[in-house]
Amino acid sequence: MTGAAAPAVAVDAVTVRYGEVTALDGASLTLDPGCVCGLVGMNGSGKSTLFKTIMGLVKPDAGTVRIHGGSPAAARRRGSVAYVPQAEEVDWSFPVSVRDVVMMGRYGHMGFTRRPKQADHDAVDRALERVELTEYADRQIGRLSGGQKKRAFVARGIAQEASVLLLDEPFAGVDKRSEATITAQLRALADDGRSILISTHDLQALPELADQAVLLMRRVLVHGHPSEVLRPEHLARAFGLDVLGGTRPGAVDTPPEPAPPAPPAPAAAGAAAGAIVKGASDA
Fold it and tell me: Which of 117, 137, 211, 255 is 20–30 Å from 160 (CA)?
């Protein structure tokens, strides 16, 4: 008799501190295959730190993270986890084309030589088509609009064929077309069995986007269906708001969490892939 399959992502009692600042305090959550999970919390609640801890780029002071039952480092080496960073983490002046950025997602499939084969070119073409960027494939990445840039990094995750996709604020500053395109592709990836964790401030769109939601304030306050997580009493605990959207008496602003190290591009992504994400280096 075999046990239940391991969840795609398991975060167990994770605590992360930057000096005297506690960014995560005993945070726990699981993410199952085929699920889109929205991550909700105010600035400074630990969302970016959680992403980078799941990626294995920040070592927790306590607790564990497992991806498909193994370590984050092993998942990165296999290329089974992909990360779409916030816009400010990317060097948009780096001299690479949109196609180059998407091809970075294929490096883990290329072997030691890292020379793309026809299968890699085909995967990149399919990913670009899915996010409606085929006509911009040869444009320098920084010359895209904000929404197109986000779509390019989503395409990189699609081309990587990762089973776990982490997206840090992909809808921030994007146009409606890009938001709709990204949402449709995330739902399609989940239908294909991929596991997706996505941070967002758009609470109204969350029920349409996500199967589950997590409310974070350094620790996980609520994890469940979006309709449950978005109940006013739960939002009040995380945002310091009353049911009418006003500030709760006595509520205080939370200072932003210190910036953790920027992530590398997907597993073994090479010098160019590391350089486009600020402060990154090869995995």
Answer: 211
Q: Work out the angle between the directed axes of helices 176-191 and 146-160 (0-180°, nearest 10).
A: 10
Distance, CA of 272 to CA of 94 (rounded, Å) = 9
- 176 assigned to some structural domain: yes
Q: Domain of 126? A: 9-276
Find the largest Cα–Cα distance for the chain.
Answer: 61
Q: Is residue 96 part of a domain?
A: yes
Please write the tens of the pLDDT for every residue from 76-91.
Answer: 988 899 998 887 678 8
pTM of the predicted model over 0.70: yes
Strand-strand pairing, 164-168 and 9-18: unpaired
CATH of the domain at 271: 3.40.50.300
pLDDT in tens, 150-194: 999 999 999 999 999 999 999 988 888 899 999 999 999 999 999
Domains in the chain, number? 1
Give domain status of residue 168, yes or no. Answer: yes
Provide the b/e sequence for 108-126 (b: ≥16 CB within 10 Å). bbbeeebebeeebeebbee
Bridge partners of 241?
Answer: 247
| Conformational region of residue 243, where left means phi above 0, alpha means psi within -120 to 50, and beta covers everything else | alpha
Residue 138 lies in a domain: yes
Closest CA to 169 of 28, 36, 40: 40
The residue to which tokens 């402060």 are assigned? 279
Please count the CA atoms within 13 angstroms of the CA of 247 that sit on its side-chain side.
5
